[in-house]
Structure formats: structure tokens, C-alpha cells
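User: Hi! Is it possible to get a structure for several chains at once, not just one? Here's what I have:
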Amino acid sequence: MSELNALTIADARKKLRAKEITAVELTEACLKAADAAKALNAVVHPTPEIALEQAKSADARLASGDAPDMCGIPLGIKDLFCTKGVASQAASGILEGFKPEYESTVTSQLFDSGAVMIGKLNMDEFAMGSSNETSVYGNVINPWRRGNDEAALTPGGSSGGSASAVAADLCLAATGTDTGGSIRQPAAFVGITGLKPTYGRVSRWGVVAFASSLDQAGPMGKSVRDCAIMLGAMSGHDPKDSTSADLAVPDFEAMLTGDIKGQTIGIPKEYRMDGMSEEIEDLWATGRAMLEDAGAKIVDISLPHTKYALPAYYVIAPAEASSNLARYDGVRYGHRAKLAHGDGITEMYEKTRAEGFGDEVKRRVMIGTYVLSAGFYDAYYNRARRVRALIKKDFDDAFASGVDAILTPATPSSAFELGQEFDDPVQMYLNDVFTVTVNLAGLPGIAVPAGLDRQGLPLGLQVIGKPWEEGALMNVAQVIEDRAGFVSKPSKWW
Amino acid sequence: MSIDTETARRVAKLARIRVEDADLPALAQDFNRILGFVEQLNEVDVEGIEPMTSVTPMRLKRRVDEVTDGNQQAKVLSNAPDAREGFFAVPKVVE
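Assistant: Yes, the chains can be modeled jointly so their relative placement is included. Here is the combined structure:
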């Protein structure tokens, strides 16, 4: 039998309910794996005591026959989620020492359903980044390597710790958050499945805010089914988040029939980028063939405003970030700079924020400040919001014309080397070219592993669905998973 | 549009982030790269398009205006860098 920490949620659930294994055994296997994987720098605040306590309670629930789907399942929690009494820093120096007095809605729902937290996971600072190189805890390392080449690769970002931890079997699944691609891009870079739900499906309460109109939490797991199980436990209306939807949460798992006969899948021509690698082209064509083979009808579609998604995002997201991050002022929590004699409150703000924020966060906060400042608000911020309306309309039109889901590559490349000096910040932003449209339109999107490139690194496909139809979306992803038969794992070097 | 070091200084001030003089030219250059990239938005015809306010067509919920929480002074202050006598403490604000 393979090691317990390598199980999927679905398999572990079966074994737990059949009393073949206990939640404590499963949790111990994950804690041991995490302890031995320090080289990956994925788990930044391990919580073994909490984990074992939760596992014991889960075993008691399992024994009494009250075992929800997530009961006894060890998870990693992205550092962006506030967890009561446990460091929650958003990988930023400015939240050094912050231990929330409350639990985020997502983690509290997961814990209520019996899930176990093995620790907090590394990420890009305030979820701003695509390579996990902006974290105050240092870079996360991708467990995958290019054959025998020992060069350290990025796990992607911003949910890089979640990606790395799941791919290396340090936990069965992890929470992630996605503002422009931060669940899907890292999932694709490490060969796991990651879902960004419809905006409003999952409560944002207690999740450190980056760009409130785009942020959405979601599951990152080892299979589509695991994402479906975990999404069910994360979702639902929350009176504490006024943008959370008051809609019933369907049984997502029950919707994974693998039958997509007669469905129409759109292939957007604007996603065929200039200079796109042949491998990505081939992967996309393979995905198309898989869905066709399953009885879907494939149609070419146009999403004409695609090219303006990244520029619109780099106005809207920094604008919201500059507003959200105004709260880090050295007064209520986290870091406060040491002040010189005679310094007043303005110096306190300025020094605290200069010391506490990393370069990328400062850059985005200041860009946001600029585009919202008097005289530029209309030219930048309002224009970007208008373009955003057009981007959403592109998708509305496609769905209205009869398209059920849209297939695209997840990323423009496989995982790249850490430490590549990008002297142009815009270069890094291009990583999100296929994912960012989905956030701007508030749609659900999933990245599912579909193959390996010539260097032996995972590549993912993205499926985009209609609002609130995560179940149907995951069913399409399930078809890709079944046909791709992706079972590769990174060989253990850590 | 080009951002000069003076504009960079003003933006840093507005954002309440201290930036040393020596770092302002590089910051201005970063701004120019990002805003240059964003410039493409001017190609789009947005005539008659309303700026998006909510991505899902949903009315925000209202709740009854009543007190549901409170009396948590110790918890509210527990993470403060400087809390004294039940208050957040900051440097002198008025002369």
C-alpha cells in the first residue's frame, strides 16, 4: 500500500469510514512528511498539536458514525486565511506576530466538517506574485525538477506553498485563493487540480483582502473529485460577507458523471497567443480531442477583449489593494517601525509601511494610489472598469450562443526557474494571461493536469464554466482527468 | 504619459510609504513600465459602457440594524504593537 499521506481525499474517506485507518495515523503520516520536506519551504507555521487534537476529535466522530466527507482529512491552509491563535501573516513582514482572535469562515466550515490543519502554507506576499518569490518567508520550491537538473523551479504563485505541499504529499489537499490565477497557475505548475469558484460562492470573511472584487478562495487537490468534495465544505452563504451568494450548495461530487455527451465546448481563438510554444498548442489540441471523444461538440469562439484583460487587471487589482492595504498602519496589529525622536504619526505610518511591505506590494499599492488619485481616476480606474464590463460581456455572449464550457491552456509555459531576474515587472504579469479573464468576469475556472512537457514538467489545461455551475465545470474537468490519465509524481529529492 | 521622480515622490507620500530619494528614479521607471502596459486600454471603445460595479448581478443583502457583537476590548487590543489602558497608543497627533 502506498503511504497514507499520498492518498486522495476520496480514498482516505473510504478507509477512514471502513476503520482501515484512523485520522490520527493519517495525520501523523502527513506531519512526518511535512517535517521531512523543509527544503520545499511550503509549510511555514506547522501546527502539529492542533492537527493531532483535531484528528482525535475526528476519530471520535468517525467512531460515532457522524462522519462528514472531510472528517479526518489533513489539509494545509494558505497563510492568507485567518486562523484563530495561529500566525496568519499573508507572508508579509507587516503582519509579523499577528495571531487572529477569530477564525475565517472557510477554515471554520472546514474544521466543523472534521478537517485537520497540519499548518499554514507559504505564498506570495499578500497574494501578489506568480512565482512565490515575494514571500517574507523566502521562496517555495517546486517538488518537480527538470530530469536530473537540480535547478530549483518555481511552484507558481501566489498559492505556491499550497501547490508544493499537495504535490509533495505533505497534506491531502490545501486551501488556495485566486485573484488573477493564483490557484490555477500554481496547480498547473505542480501537476495538481485547482478550482477557482464563481465569485460569491465561497465567503471571503477572515481571508486577508487583496482585491475584493476579484478574490475568491478555492480547493487545491490531487483530483477533480477531491476538489468537488472540498468545495462542498468550503461553500455557502455567509452573512458576514455581503458579496457571498445566498444560493443552495449543490452536491458537486454527485455531478461528476463523466458524461458530457452533447455539450458544447468553446475554443477561444484569442487565447492562441503569438509565440505560444508548440507544446502548449499540442496540449490544447489533445484536450480538445479528449472532449470530442467524450461526445462533446467543439466550436471555435471569439472573446474579442481578451488582450485587454491583463491591463485592466493591473489597474483594478492595485486600486483595490491600495485601499485594502491602507489598514496596515502600525496601529492595530503587526509591525510598527521604531521611531526617531520627534517623529509624529505620519512618520510612523511611512516608516512602518516602508519596512513592513516588500517591493512588489509597495509597487502595487503605489500604482493603485496613482490610478485612484484626483485627475487620473477616470482615465485609468473608470476606463478599466468599463473594459472589465466588456470582458464579462464577451463571456456572456459566448454562453448565450450555446457554449457550455470553454477550454484553454492554464499557463503559457511550464514551471520556470526561481531567481530569474525579471527587470520588467510586466514580464511576470504575463503568467496570468489565460487565467485573469476569469476573475474579471467572476466565473468559475479549473486547472487540471493533462501531460508532461519535454523537460518532464507538468502542464495543465483550464476549463472555464458558467456562473454557479462549478459542478458541470468539474464534470468536464473529470473527463480530461479520466482520459489524460495523469499519474506522474515528482521523484523525491527533498 | 511619463512619470517623473517628483510624481513618484508624491504618490509615495499619498500611499504613506517612505521611499528614499535615491530610489525614486527606479520607482518612476517601474511606474512607467506598468502604466505603459496599461495604456493599451485607450484602444478600446468604451462609449456608452457603464463601469462595472458588481460582477454578479446580485442585490447586496441588508440586515437589521442591531448590535450583534461587542464587549471584546481585550481581544481587539491583543495584537496591537502598543496598547495602554484599554486604548491603541500612537505618537502625538496634535501639537
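Chain A touches chain B through 73 residues (CB under 8 Å). The mean pLDDT of chain A is 96.

User: Great, thank you!
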